[in-house]
Amino acid sequence: MTEKIRKPYYITTAIAYASGKPHIGNTYEIVLADSIARWKREQGYDVHFQTGTDEHGQKIENKAKEAGMTPKEFVDQTAAEIKRIWDLMNTSYDRFIRTTDEDHVAQVQKIFKKLYDQGDIYKGYYEGLYCTPCESFWTKSQLVDGRCPDCGRPVTPAKEEAYFFRMSKYAPRLIDYINEHPEFIQPVARKNEMMNNFLKPGLQDLCVSRTSFKWGIPVDFDPKHVVYVWLDALVNYITGIGYNCGGESGELYKKYWPADLHLIGKDIIRFHTIYWPIFLMALGEPLPKQVFGHPWLLQAGGKMSKSKGNVIYADDMVDLFGVDAVRYFVLHEMPFDNDGVISWDLMIERNNSDLANILGNLVKRTVSMSNKYFGGVVTDTGAAEPVDEDLKKTVLDAVKKADEKMNQLRVADALTAIFEIFRRSNKYIDETAPWTLAKDEAKKDRLATVLYNLTEAIAIGGSLLYAFMPETSEKILREIGCAKRSLEEMDRFGLYPSGSHVTDAPETLFARIDRKEIEPKIDAIEEKQRAAAEKNAAEAGNPETAGEKEKASSGEGKAPENGAAPDSGSFVDTPAQTKEACTIDDFAKCEFRVGEVLSCEKVPKSRKLLCFKIRFGRETRQILSGIQAYYEPEQLVGKKVIAITNLPPRKMAGMESQGMLLSALDDKGSLSLLTTMADIAAGSEVG
User: Fold this and answer.
1) CATH of 343-501, one of 1.10.730.10, 3.30.2290.10, 3.30.310.50, 3.30.559.30
2) Distance of alpha carbon 233 from alpha carbon 56, whole angstroms
3) How far is 452 from 460, CA to CA, in rounded Å?
4) Residues carrying CATH 1.10.730.10, the chain
5) How much is the pLDDT for 670?
6) Would you call 495 helix, strand, or coil by DSSP?
7) From its phi and psi, is residue 669 left (phi > 0), alpha (psi between -120 and 50) or beta?
8) Fewest CB within 10 A of the end CB: N or C in the chain?
9) HEC-encoded secondary structure of 278-306
10) Top CATH class, 570-686
């Protein structure tokens, strides 16, 4: 029997700049790429996953000098640290390329010479305003408040001999390509930005060499020049898989190029969708199939920056929460095309609600009940009831939806679909009440089938989790004595072998975390950040942050503008008008916003109240609502709800409520929380 030929799939991240330790916002990209790479392998693709480090440039030369090291010693140290973080996060890359690697250096020199010989590169002089951290020249008109438009740092006048690439020669061809391949740049907003702001107004020729510093790849036919960082860095995507300029390229290149996906941050979309494809056109090589510019993971105050003192590092988070909890958080909290927000409180909420309550509690309860009632043996007796069909449908629909969302690179949505399996399974436990069935010997077969259905749902959900939380997936499957399923095996319900044994000692997958218990560690981390920020500011002589610009005009990720704490309770209206008419001015005083339910629990001292933790943009609020009789708490987690957010706080059952949820109550006594039809960003204003 011949082995099935697997279709190749090549995915890359941007290579990390080796000037220092990557923060969690940088780390998000490698975790995102890893989840896509793992999913593609599950789909049956032959995946090649490349990442690495960008190690040349004036900034690194300066940092090495400050550290009393040679540039190579410095990048050896920082590249090792970056690789350590990537490995810590359990990422499954196939090559970690460094731009100091000999094979890369040799090809960069050959590429530069080829482009020069064919007239695409020429020598001239550059005079302008230079930003060292961004390694970019700017004209005075391009500056923002006299500073670099990309990072906000000061610029300095500079003039030097340089080689230039004739960008304008290829611009019309690139415009045609983008128009003919609408999937090339994603999300669409990034494509529109490149076309309208850069390509259509006309491209200037690009500086591709430097003479004012030495730390770079020498231009072999003019050694006083070094290859400018962007030409050096961008070609890693082909040199890393065996491209040979002017010769026979290796088997990996023939197999995997063109790349299926370049995954990069939105701040470097211009380099990857304009400069890089033009370089490839000049070399006569195919263009990558897709470039996806992902959004940023922001701290509550904006983009993370060492100079601002708001940097969170992956290893600090892992020490507090574990690798898979951090992977889950960064993947789940990042929307498709809007910036995500990170905070210690939000991380704790996700750990406690999603991981400990919804997932961990489900697995432990199910395994424990199988041990308690059947000695750990899981058997399908065929004693089915109608409620089983809804569980099965939810599970199989979630498989299809997760696959569909991953094909669209909507990773957060795929995770949400998978967790719907666990939410529905928890509801199924409440619906079937196994503890009640266990009291009646005549219902023993029904009890066995209920536990079988739960175990099968967990087997499918646990297998789906592998791309996102690989260690957790393996633990879950060990708990229930099951091998990981392929996607092909998840198109039907009931493959868990009847008569299998679960573990006799179920573990706690995720423990609930009390903020007070980890407060000292968080304080120590934040104090370290502040000290580093003060040191950086003192060394730079400039306390302002770099690269902290946000799209303030677009309102992306904004917290509610009104500083007042909101109200309490749930606003319930009936079909008949019962209130005095109000004016539009009265209505305009109320601030309505979309919120995402992070957790929902019953209030211990109340038979009516549910306690919600709801995220509105970058802010998380606690809201109490008297709707316990209408919903199970786990049903509401992940829902987008509407709330009034500018009413004063109110005490209820000894707890503070900071908002008012909107819901509707009909004359038959049915209640429904108001939710959104589309997956609109939390924090969006309603009006």
Assistant:
1) 1.10.730.10
2) 9
3) 12
4) 343-501
5) 65
6) coil
7) left
8) N
9) HHHHHHCCCCCCCEEEECCEEECCECCCC
10) mainly beta
Cα distance between residue 131 and residue 152, in whole Å: 9
Is-contact 452 498, C-beta < 8 A? yes
CA distance 133 to 128: 15
Give 374-439 as a DSSP string: HTTEE-------HHHHHHHHHHHHHHHHHHHHHHTT-HHHHHHHHHHHHHHHHHHHHHH-HHHHTT
What pLDDT, in 10s, does the model give residues 372-411? Answer: 999 999 999 999 999 999 999 999 999 999 999 999 999 9
Q: Which range has the worst mean pLDDT, 78-87, 394-403, 552-561, 581-590? A: 552-561
Do residues 39 and 409 lie in contact, with contact meaning Cβ atoms separated by under 8 Å? no
| Interior angle at CA 354, CA 351 and CA 356, nearest 5 | 60
Q: Quick check: 619 and 646 in contact, CB under 8 A? A: no
Query: For residue 419, which of 485, 354, 488, 503 has the smallest C-alpha distance?
Result: 354
As beta bridge partners, residue 602 has 610
Interval 482-498: pLDDT, tens:
999 999 999 999 999 99
**CB neighbourhood size of 123 (10 A):** 12
